[in-house]
């Protein structure tokens, strides 16, 4: 699939998270991960929180596909996540397969304050389960937990929308968790703003990446940093990116 060229941002970090003793010097295993979800659910904010430990209020949508990397060490393995942050706008939906093709993991994000975004997330899950790698690890993530008022609002508070600092939850934890269990997904609720549970999502994915991605390695193979690249350890590479982990696409994230 071809697309018009546009700038792509690339961020690489060296510190590992969740380091376990004796494993910090192990060779990192590249794992391609794609973020999917409706526009404005906070996909970019989640990955920036994970990679840079930062949050940008009122962040402008990214023009071009954002590619970032981060290392996470769990148990006896060090995972180098190669993260593609995709566009949420419907007009860019047709480009998504270019990014989730050969991905070993996916984070499908919805907004806990907007029920319609969970419906969209479910459609992404169905598409991944139908078209992506059959062994892909999928995490369903309900974001914007910081906006939720868990306490029942009084009548006065309900009538004071202009001054409200929080909004009512539209997607219950129980309903989303039940769906995730039925669909065989990992499940977390997060806040990119406060950082709540963000790192845990990626650590849990790292723990659940199938062992064959690590066992059947091919030393010297390219990491597949391009949008369509896969993990060379299971010989899924079809086309790779350049050594700097950057590429061009017509995606707006």
Describe the secondary-structure layout.
Blueprint: E1 10-11, E2 16-17, E3 29-37, H1 43-52, E4 66-74, E5 77-85, H2 96-100, E6 105-111, H3 115-131, E7 137-143, H4 155-158, H5 173-183, E8 186-189, H6 198-208, H7 212-215
Parallel strand pairs: 1-4, 2-4, 3-5, 3-6, 6-7, 7-8
Antiparallel strand pairs: 4-5
Structure described in brief:
By secondary structure, the protein is α/β, with parallel strands linked by helices. The chain has seven helices and eight strands, in the order βββαββαβαβααβαα. 25% of the residues lie in helices and 19% in strands.
Indicate the mean pLDDT: 76
- Between the first and last Cα atoms, what is the distance in angstroms? 18 Å
Please describe the biggest sheet, giving its number of strands, its sense, and whether it closes into a barrel. Answer: 8 strands, mixed
| Helical stretch tally | 7
């Amino acid at each position: 699939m071809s697309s018009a060229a546009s700038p792509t941002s690339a961020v690489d970090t060296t510190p590992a998270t969740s380091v376990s003793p004796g494993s910090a010097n192990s060779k990192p295993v590249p794992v391609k991960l794609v973020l999917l979800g409706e526009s404005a659910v906070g996909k970019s904010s989640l990955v920036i929180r994970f990679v840079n430990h930062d949050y940008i209020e009122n962040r402008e949508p990214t023009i071009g596909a954002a590619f970032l990397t981060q290392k996470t060490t769990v148990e006896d393995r060090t995972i180098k996540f190669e993260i593609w942050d995709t566009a949420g706008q419907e007009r860019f939906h047709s480009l998504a397969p270019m990014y989730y093709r050969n991905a070993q993991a996916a984070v499908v994000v919805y907004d806990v304050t907007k029920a319609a975004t969970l419906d969209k997330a479910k459609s992404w899950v169905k598409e991944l389960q139908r078209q992506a790698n059959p062994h892909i690890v999928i995490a369903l993530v309900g974001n914007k937990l910081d906006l939720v008022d868990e306490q029942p609002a009084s009548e006065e508070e309900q009538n004071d929308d202009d001054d409200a600092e929080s909004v009512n939850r539209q997607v219950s934890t129980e309903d989303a968790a039940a769906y995730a269990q039925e669909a065989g997904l990992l499940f977390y609720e997060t806040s990119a703003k406060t950082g709540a549970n963000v790192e845990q999502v990626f650590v849990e994915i790292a723990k659940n990446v199938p062992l064959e991605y690590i066992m059947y390695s091919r030393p010297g193979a390219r990491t597949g940093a391009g949008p369509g690249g896969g993990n060379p350890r299971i010989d899924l590479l079809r086309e790779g990116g350049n050594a700097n982990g950057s590429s061009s696409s017509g995606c707006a994230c």
